[in-house]
Amino acid sequence: RAYNFAAGPACMPEPVLKKAQSEMLNWHGCGMSVMEMSHRGSQFAEIHAEAKERFKRLLNVPYTHEVLFLQGGATSQFAAIPLNLMDGKPASYAVTGNFSGIAAREAGKYGDVHVAYEGKGNNYSHIPEQGELSIAQGDAYFHYCANNTIFGTAWGYVPETGGVPLVCDMSSEIMSHPVDVSRYALIYAGAQKNIAPAGLTVVVIDKSFAGREAAVTPQVMSYQKMIDKDSMLNTPPCWCIYMLGLTLDWLDEQGGIEGMEQIKHGKAQMLYDCIDSSKLFTCAAEKPFRSDMNVTFRSASEELDAKFVKEAAEAGFVNLKGHRKVGGMRASIYNAVPVEGVEKLCDFIRAFDKAN
Ligand code: PMP
User: Fold this and answer.
1) Ligand 1 center from residue 58 Cα (angstroms)
2) Distance between CA atoms of 261 and 332, rounded to whole angstroms?
3) 190 Cβ closer than 6 Å to some ligand 1 atom
4) What is the pLDDT of residues 104-145, one digit of tens each?
5) Does residue 231's CB lie within 6 angstroms of at least one atom of ligand 1?
6) Which residue in 116, 142, 143, 110 sits closest to 129, CA to CA?
7) Rg (CA), the chain
8) Is the CB of 9 inside a 6 Å radius of any atom of ligand 1?
9) Residues in contact with 57: Cβ distance below 8 Å, sequence separation at least 6, in sequence order
10) Fewer Cβ neighbours under 10 Å: the N or C end of the chain?
11) pTM of the model as a whole
């Protein structure tokens, strides 16, 4: 298998894939694959409950919050959040990258949006400090994206909002470090980067914020309805929920989220040190705001970048081409990317740097 640095869908832990393979045709002796079960049957009920229990335990989700396993991607939440939480009030958005910009524009369809920060001027290489945020008091919520997948920047702190409820897109960093869930009205994530295959969206909501949705809210987007039905108002993404459960079991074996935080920070440090000490490459993100998950870097020429990406792929390091909005390269080093893969990528970067 290749070392896969894709931004999402992304590398899954190999032991998880092997476990799924071993259970593919006949889950726990029931004679069916998980893909063939009724979502209302007892077997799937067990899979669903176990995945949810592991998620709650690992992320330390307090009893005030509920965990929902939904479809539609993080993009569906860009609409669901304003529909459910605005309640006739404006909302504040920090725009620090592509997806927080899309989220803000989507919310603008349903109510007034205050832009608390706009990072376009520095091509989103920067994360605002607390003092750079203008959060309108009285707003329904303040939304930010903790890790900017395309630009490779991350918030190193949880913003203070002065009582405005906090909403966060954690798609590209969920389960990579501990989070004080009690500070958030809502956390959401497309699962396809760090915790499961594409098709599952996880929402963690403070239950006191549910039940305020606008009348036009589609029922699959109503948090209250999904809480009432334990995410099974309609057919949930069964296979992805099963894979989430296996992935969280694997995460547990890595020392849980605390253990993973050490591992992921070590991998990122190793890669950034390698890039910083090269003669050819520089990082796209400003140093204090560098993401541990998506490492964006480039050489001085597009031709050399293309040569790097091509030769890396030939050597077994795939999906390193940067997003077109940034150019250069991007190595996404989510939880499942092994330390050994990053070590070998660093060896490759050093050899390339010497030869070119
Ligand atoms: N937010 C972030 C931070 C993302 O990286 C992405 C996907 N790359 C999205 C939202 C959109 O997610 P989805 O494709 O699941 O709708």
Assistant:
1) 22
2) 15
3) yes
4) 999 999 999 999 999 999 999 999 999 999 999 999 999 999
5) no
6) 116
7) 21
8) no
9) none
10) N
11) 0.98
